[in-house]
Known about the structure:
single chain, seven-stranded mixed beta sheet, 39% helix, alpha/beta
Amino acid sequence: MFKRILVLAPHTDDGELGCGGAVARFLEEGREVYQAVFSAAVRSLPEGLPSDTLVREWKAATSTLGIPAGSLVRYDFPVREFPAWRQEILEKLIILRRELNPDLVLLPALEDLHQDHRTIAREGIRAFKQVSVLGYELPWNNLEFRNNCFIILQESHLQKKAAALACYRSQSHRKYCREEFVLNLAGIRGAQIGADFAELFNLIRLVIK
């Protein structure tokens, strides 16, 4: 149904965390996948690591999923300050819409508690008013989440997701980056619809052409 997909990631690891399995499936099926990241979150790095650590890890992670380097876009907005840059972010999103013309956009859920994630979600649905939009699940940031859209996955897709997350060595202390978490969450979401594995999304807008 969708041929050109754009993933909007507030920070360098959010795209892999929220929809890495779906991205692996889409690429396997021959669809075009692009990813735009809005901050390398330098101030969130553990002390002593080089400032470009997350950028290098992001490039390795997206390459592991199979996203071509030419399909990556990176901006450098300051982490935890996105609300103050709302208009500038919206303008970047409008440029992406014109240049890429995606028919599906994946972004954080509208209910996400993180201020940067919420800014990307709200400006994203403004910029892509005529496009199908799904909000990806980041359980540690969601007080509530509508279980109304599932993408069924194979274990191979989740292995790619886990391998991509393993590239973020600077974030290895986070429990949600571990392979067992990836598989367990996907197993729960799959069980909800009678499948082995799935990723869960909020259906924000569906455009059928």
